[in-house]
Amino acid sequence: MKQNFYCIFLFICSWACTPSNNSKIEIVIDKSLEAELKAGRLLLIYSTDSTTEPRFGISDNVSTNQVFGMDFEDFEAGKPILFDSRSFGYPVERISELKEGTYYVQAFIQKHETFNRADGHTINLPMDQGEGRQWARAPKNIYSKPIAVNWKKEQNLRLTIENIIPEIKQPEDTDYIKHIKIKSEKLSEFWGRDMYLGANILLPEGFDENPSQYYPLMIFHGHFPSDFSGFRTIPPDPDLGEDDYSDRFGIYGYAKLEQQEAYDFYQKWISPDFQRFIIIEVQHANPYYDDSYAVNSANLGPYGDAITYELIPHIEEQFRGIGEGWSRFLYGGSTGGWEALAVQVFYPDEYNGCFAACPDPIDFRAYTSINLYEDQNAYYQEGEFRKTLRPAHRNYLGHVSATVEDMNHKELAIGGNKSRSGDQFDIWQAVYSPAGPDGYPKPIWDKYSGEIDSEVANYWKENYDLRYIMERDWASLGPKLEGKINIFCGDMDNFYLNNAVYLTEEFLEETENPYYDGTVSYGDRAEHCWNGDPTLPNYISRLRYNTIYLDAIGDRLMKTAPAGFNQYNWTLTKN
């Protein structure tokens, strides 16, 4: 009883001691933008940088801009939206706690659309508009021009939203690169409206001159590709100087290096002794993220089936793919690494090998720095007298720059508590969770406090924990996966993804009847996203996904392709 009384006292004190805020913040919508506005997420963003719009400066870094967010529905034309000063913010949680000073302030609205799903739920979500579900760049979203404000406590503010993000110009086809978009019947049925899948396709040299030749298919999984990347038919731009700097890799001249690598790939692609195959990059942006994770999901719908049984057969029929499981290979890094392994596991007969680099957590006992099955809280470890925040991002020296709480609170401010931020933890939740009673993904943990829901964790385990699923079903899966699993990760991955790879490797090395007969390897002190070449630094090897696994693929084809397959371009010796 004393403990309960103490908890109630703390709750009342916490509520009562929350600083009040009497600021009146009005957001006026220009009349020209009112017609299509019904519901959405209103963001109020503060920055100290006058050179870049505040909407582009929200991040996990310590230098992030400040954002507060609130949902609204049933917008009434002609009336301003009154911003709720109690709305949650990141990194400062309440407007009343924001220190006084000069800021550049911007209002931004991410529009929501209504979906009447086949499961009976009606929900509001932001729809991809061809940009890859990037809220700050999504066409049709609206925003105000940043203004300088000398911010003081209990200050009134009035912002006018009068700008709209324009439609995106779609890339054009070339001799080598084609772009397709198809309506998915499976996804359209689930979402209750027309839904589409797309792909950027690189055709082999001699495609038009050899109409009777059919080709293996390489599926490069990853984040939304606006156009086919890493392929350039002209030399690097001579105007690109060496002063171009990459913050990520800490080197100068990186843009020119990227162009040189793309041009070098083109030179290999057209050479007479280079392997002939088709490469596709899948476009499967959706209302929750820039891609679907390429699996079936209670919240996203049957993307796995749609990609494997609708999109890929369509591409193979139109562009002369061989069209059989032995001729298809999967690869990718990070999100794409998880997808490559997951698709191979869930569709073992439809693909002949996966190369999963720096995959998102493939064992949920190491869900970044969290054990979902044993930990009580995702944000911290707690003892009798202290608690320690869980790290989420580090460099190769182990220096931590963001915690799990930081990243989730950022998402909470941007997207609210219904997985609508379009960011990393929210999409994992949207893909892996069952649908909740309200139709939105059931939370794996409380987004504010971090308290883990063990029932949801068990659902994740049974349906998406790739190591657990392989171990559980090895008697039936093993014979179909033998020789097909290859995983690569840096041992200082920035997001601790190597920890799940270690656990998965332990299982794979113990497999019998059959032994998995694949590869798991690690890059010494390599950060995200090491993909398997110990002779090259990350900043170069990440540009060579389309060639780095060809020797292994060639070996696999020699072992598994039927006798009638022409191996010339793979072995350099005629059959």
Automatic annotation (TrEMBL):
Gene3D superfamilies in UniProt: alpha/beta hydrolase
Full protein name: Esterase
Source organism: Algoriphagus ratkowskyi
